[in-house]
Design goal:
- This protein has 1 helix and 9 strands, in the order βββββββββα.
- A hairpin with a 5-residue loop joins strand 4 and strand 5.
- By secondary structure, the chain is mainly β.
- It comes from Amycolatopsis bullii.
Amino acid sequence: MSLTVLQEAKPPFIPEGAQAMTIVIEYPPGDPGTPPHRHPGPAFGYVLEGEMVFELEGEPPRIVRAGEAFWEPGGDVIHYQDGNNRDDVPVRFTVTMLCEPGKPMVDLVTEDELSAKGWSRK
């Protein structure tokens, strides 16, 4: 048996009555990904293929490559970018989210809020 720890994180909170949801997302080459959004609870992910541009509020953008893990705290933190960093291959990643019952797993951020924070997608 072989066991490799990819990441360890202590989420700031877990929503009351949280339900876990695991999904696989695939973006074609050059796809910018989901518009800026929030998740109601923490999310933990792993890139299966390709490269993802990953940007959370308060952090610089970074590239997460196949075989690397990422996480985000959820709640009020904006997830600005999760798009494909490559224009020649797809990106495919899995995410496990702790969702709050009755709330959508993704809450898109309004343009007004983005403007107020001084952020714009490049």
